[in-house]
Amino acid sequence: MSQLSARRSSPIDPRPPLAVDAPREGEWECASGSGTTISIVTPCYNSAKFVERAYRSLCEQGDAEFEWIVVDDKSPDDTIDTLRDLAAKAPFKMRIFALPVNSGGGMAYAFGAQMARGHLVFFLDHDDALLPNVLSGMAQDWDRHGRTGKFCGLLYRSMNPETRRFNSPPLGFGAYTMSRIVNTKPSLRDALFVFDRSILQRVYTYELADKTIYFGVLYSKLTAVRPVLYCRDDAVKLYYLDNDQAMTKNLVLSRQLIFVYAENFNQADVYYLRRPMLYLKRLFNLVRFSDQVYGSPAHGLALVRSRLVRALGYAMIPGYLLARSRLKPYPVRQRPPYPSEVLGEALEIGKH
């Protein structure tokens, strides 16, 4: 557990980036002795029905040098057995971990990221898939552009598997922060973010994972360190919508969601001025959801650092109270803080 604890407390390194070819702790090198290696992290929960689709897509990645890290989040179904069967025949590096306590997703992502050994890391959901032979292109893009130390990662588009149409128009070659993407490219429905492992592991702490849900806050913090680079219009991922249990389809209120809404305002920059009505709506929802989760519409406002935003939020409370009886209530899940000390008990149950 000492190694995990050390990683959790590591600050962002303010020094200049490492030399282009300097190996970092824990990384492995390509068989050829050069080039970029990739870690793919997939958390699983009741994934037996879907995870083989992701596995099949990884079998179509040619000679790319990568590892697949699968983290089971205490699934009650036969996910573990399915993963063992896949590991027994996988033609690539595959590592399976089992968390001793269910985390609701966030901690499984963070744990997998901390276990990663590649130069680059990205998250592939258990119900999605990669297009054939895209990993070698990612490695080439990073070798060509990423090792300058100017970027924290790469950004790619995804595709609808049924229509074979892109889920968004081209962004345009260049560097992007999460705020720039959200506020100037609102048509971007889904994308794949690929990160420099050293930056991801320093930013994506277990403490942050326990506070958040979804990736908006994490990606905002990462791209505040350095932007991601969009350097090609090709899609790399198939974004499936056939999982009825996906979090994006089922809004559930929680302390993590309140933190996410508050952090939206704590990370505000000049790009937020492009969509003022969006953030007024989010501020109203912060008031509304705080009332449902904590019994106080002002609770979430205390997490917002800006006095102006807090004042606007307090001004919305009387109107919210008048409209409260007409607003649809959402289910609330009161999940206690995750006992991160049990991560030292996570089992590596399969390795190939």
Describe the overall structure.
This protein is α/β, with parallel strands linked by helices. The chain has two domains: 2-11 and 18-243 and 338-351, Spore Coat Polysaccharide Biosynthesis Protein SpsA, Chain A (Alpha-Beta Complex); 255-326, no CATH class. 36% of the residues lie in helices and 15% in strands. It is built from twelve helices and eleven strands. The protein has helices spanning 2-8, 51-58, 79-89, 106-115, 135-145, 178-184, 197-203, 206-211, 216-225, 255-266, 276-294, 307-323; strands at residues 38-44, 66-72, 93-98, 120-123, 129-130, 153-159, 174-176, 191-196, 228-230, 235-238, 347-351. Strands 1, 2, 3, 4, 5, 6, 7, 8, 9, 10 and 11 form an eleven-stranded mixed beta sheet that branches. β2, α3 and β3 (93-98) form a beta-alpha-beta unit. α10 (255-266) packs antiparallel against α11 (276-294) and α11 (276-294) crosses α12. It is globular. The protein starts with a helix and ends with a strand. The model is unreliable at 1-25 (pLDDT under 50).
Search tags:
352 residues, Spore Coat Polysaccharide Biosynthesis Protein SpsA, Chain A, 2 domains, alpha/beta, disordered N terminus, eleven-stranded mixed beta sheet, 11 strands
Q: How are the secondary structure elements laid out?
A:
Elements: H1 2-8, E1 38-44, H2 51-58, E2 66-72, H3 79-89, E3 93-98, H4 106-115, E4 120-123, E5 129-130, H5 135-145, E6 153-159, E7 174-176, H6 178-184, E8 191-196, H7 197-203, H8 206-211, H9 216-225, E9 228-230, E10 235-238, H10 255-266, H11 276-294, H12 307-323, E11 347-351
Parallel strand pairs: 1-2, 1-4, 2-3, 6-9, 6-10
Antiparallel strand pairs: 3-11, 4-8, 5-10, 6-8, 7-9
